[in-house]
Each structure stands twice: as C-alpha cells, then as structure tokens.
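Work Package 3 (structural annotation) set out to generate three-dimensional models for the target panel prioritized at the project kickoff. During this period the team completed the workflow that converts sequence records into discrete structure tokens, so that structures can be stored uniformly alongside our sequence database. As a representative example, we reproduce one entry of 215 residues exactly as it appears in the project archive.
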Amino acid sequence: MGVSAPLLSAAGVIAAVVAMMVDGRRAVAIAVAFLAAGLAPTAATFGGAPGAAVLGACGIAALVLAWAGWLGGRVLPWLSGLDPTIPAFAPAARLFGPRSARAFGAAVAVPIASWVSFNVPVGQVTAVEGLLFPIAYAWTCGVIRLLVARTLEDLAVGVAMVGIATGTAWLLRSGGDSFPGAVIACAVAPVAAFLAGWLHGRSSRKAHPFVEAQA
C-alpha cells in the first residue's frame, strides 16, 4: 500500500467533518464532493484506479445533477414548492443550534468508528490494520446527521453520506469484484443531490401570475 493508514484516515475524517457541518442550498452537492474526494484514496487502495473513479464519478454526478435538478425545478413547475432548508422535523433551536448537535455527533463518532475499524474485519481489510476507520467514521456521521435532521436538506446529506460510505466499504470487501454493488450504493448520493436541487429550484420560483390572480 503506497499511502499510510493515518493519511487515509485524515483525508476521510476531514471530508466527513465538512459533510457533517455544511449547511445551505448547496449542502448536499458540497458534502458529496468532499466525501467522495476524501474517501477516494481509500477506495483506490483496494479497488485501484477504477475504485477511485467510482467515487470521482459520484462526486461529479452529484454536482451536475444538483444543478440540473435546480434548473428543472425552476423551469417546470408553476408554483413555488417546499424549501428543503426550512426546519420541519424538530422545533427551532434555542440553547443548542443544529450545528452544535452535529459537532457533538461528529465527536461521538470518533470512538465508535475506532472500535469498528479495529474489531470488525471487512473482506480484504483485517481488523488489526484499522483501515476501515475513515469509512466507519463517515458512515457513523451520516447516520447521526439523519438522526438529528431538522430539514429535508439534512436528510438528503445524511442519506448521501451513508451511501458513499457504504459504497466504499463495498469496494473493500473484495476489491474490483465489488464494483457493481459499490456503484449502486454510491448512486444514492447523486440522486439525493438531484432531489435537493429540484426542491431548491421549486422553492426559489415565484408563483405563476395566473395562479396569483386566482388566489
């Protein structure tokens, strides 16, 4: 292996933290791009260049589909739609904001991912190597973001994180033989980016004048 485990872990952890904390209308696309880039070295270690290409294609597809979804949402519907950044699944934060909860979750995910990486062997990865850590950390952060989600955007980011981490872990099971399963798992992320972009496009479009006149 050409790259040391600590460097692989650092890249994956930094990417997962960015994905965990990012907010706003481009949160899903940004989270997917960073996480795909951060886990690509790990994927390349066991899947070679094609393994890294799977995650690279996932990140690029998320950026393109997020833009396409936003454009389609603005062009096709007449009425404005649901804004995915408006809190809908929890009351507005008072003492602790949503980022504080996610920061706490990111810290809690460290010992969880560490335990998994040193105790759960996956395919080619032996438990003592601890090479599963960045993947386990990204997956755990994705699940935590789903659990503390306040908006549809949060849910989309969480789903994307879990999908990319699952796809990368699938590559580690048996290297190149796992490409179909890895592609299917990673495909969840661009789909989430497209749906989020679509909702943003709809919510940013003003109501059609005819509908306003009838209201």
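Residues 83 and 199 are 6 Å apart (CA to CA).
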